[in-house]
């Protein structure tokens, strides 16, 4: 399809993370002419726990092209989450197994699937500005200007299109994110979360065997640690485990991590993924929430494009769905994060309670998308 500044797409999606590609594929599957813009290129690393929950697996099976879905079955199966804090461990079996898959591979597979579904995909093409002209949007990019009847912003927290943040909930604490891949032989098939007073670190196996590899993703206060060496010293159990680790690549970081009330739209543009709201990563369902929001945002705008809804009704429909199905997960995650700041004996008591299967599984479910089983997945 030849495009120029006069071309007007039905839907433009900014960003090619899980939310962006989910929105683009959903729009294309419903017959829309879709443009997807990505500022970077593939493959690329992102600061991410790389934990794919059962909810996210179901979504990915519906979004991936048939040629890519088999990679989900080849991934390591995760059936248990282990929380380690204050010298105590809580073992929380997952009702439905999760998997591990690197963000570099996940984003690439979703991007390829979007291309195969007829989405006009442009990488290394940063969206600089979006102007609402009333009857259409004009997008200024590195490759010129494009038009679209509707836009979903999935560009994350730090793009030039980021919506001005409300006051940070914990304004006296500056959080940063760290991520690295490390070689580790004989890794357990569990998701291990190591908590300490100033943050936590999640460790997930990516590859088993003598040349095995794990992903370590952490959230830590900037005044306590700025690299993994400093971070490991904060948690004795993690420090002991990491003694034999060798880095597979130079660790990456992102900062600051800001927690604010989610926002679903801005000047007529729907927001999805981290552009809408950033959930505490330790919940392990961030990818699922991002994909859900991308699918729902595109579906709402499809109703507008097909003249089934007015634009205001589409925006209201998405906002209502988001607040009913995703907002509770954000609120519950915030409550759980605050347990880190409680006295040691209360942390130990909390972990004892989480060792009770019903309590542990309920805590996990509280940070998941409501009504996920009723979601209308895209069928390829």
Essential attributes:
FAD/NAD(P)-binding domain; 17 strands; 2 domains; alpha/beta; disordered C terminus; 8-stranded mixed β-sheet
Summarize the structure in words:
It is a single chain. With about 375 residues, the protein is of the alpha/beta class. The chain folds into 2 domains: about 270 residues, 3-Layer(bba) Sandwich (FAD/NAD(P)-binding domain); about 80 residues, D-Amino Acid Oxidase, Chain A, domain 2 (2-Layer Sandwich). Helix content is about 30%, strand content about 30%. The strands form 2 sheets. Strands 3, 4, 5, 10, 11, 12, 13, 14 and 15 form a 9-stranded mixed β-sheet that branches. Strands 1, 2, 6, 7, 8, 9, 16 and 17 form an 8-stranded mixed β-sheet that branches. Helix 1 packs parallel to helix 4, helix 2 packs across helix 7 and helix 7 packs antiparallel against helix 8. It is globular.
């Amino acid at each position: 399809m030849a495009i120029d500044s006069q071309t007007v797409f039905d839907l433009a999606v900014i960003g090619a993370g899980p939310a962006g590609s989910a929105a683009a594929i959903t729009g294309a599957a419903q017959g829309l002419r879709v443009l997807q813009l990505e500022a970077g290129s593939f493959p690329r690393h992102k600061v991410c726990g790389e934990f794919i929950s059962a909810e996210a697996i179901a979504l990915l099976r519906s979004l991936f092209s048939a040629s890519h879905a088999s990679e989900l079955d080849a991934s390591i199966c995760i059936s248990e989450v282990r929380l380690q804090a204050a010298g105590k461990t809580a073992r929380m079996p997952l009702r439905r197994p999760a998997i591990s898959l690197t963000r570099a591979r996940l984003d690439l597979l979703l991007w390829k699937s979007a291309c195969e579904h007829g989405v006009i995909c442009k990488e290394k093409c940063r969206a600089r500005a979006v102007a609402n002209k009333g009857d259409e949007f004009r997008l200024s990019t590195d490759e010129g200007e494009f038009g679209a009847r509707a836009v979903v912003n999935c560009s994350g927290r730090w793009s030039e299109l980021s919506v001005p943040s409300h006051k940070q909930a914990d304004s006296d604490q500056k959080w940063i994110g760290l991520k690295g891949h490390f070689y580790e032989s004989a890794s357990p098939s569990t998701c291990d979360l190591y908590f300490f007073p100033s943050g936590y670190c999640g460790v997930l196996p990516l590859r088993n065997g003598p040349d095995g590899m794990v992903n370590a993703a952490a959230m830590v206060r900037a005044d306590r640690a700025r690299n993994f060496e400093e971070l490991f010293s904060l948690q004795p159990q993690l420090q002991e485990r990491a003694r034999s680790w060798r880095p597979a690549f130079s660790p990456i970081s992102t900062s600051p991590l800001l927690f604010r009330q989610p926002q679903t739209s801005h000047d007529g543009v729907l927001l999805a993924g981290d552009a809408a709201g950033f959930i505490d990563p330790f919940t392990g369902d961030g990818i699922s929430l991002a994909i859900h929001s991308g699918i729902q945002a595109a579906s709402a705008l499809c109703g507008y494009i097909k003249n089934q809804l007015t634009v205001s009704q589409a925006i209201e429909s998405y906002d209502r769905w988001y607040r009913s199905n995703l907002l509770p997960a954000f609120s519950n995650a915030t409550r759980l994060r605050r347990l880190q700041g409680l006295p040691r004996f209360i942390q130990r008591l909390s972990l004892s309670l989480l060792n009770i299967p019903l309590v542990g599984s309920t805590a996990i479910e509280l940070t998941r998308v409501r009504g996920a089983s009723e979601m209308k997945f895209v069928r390829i």
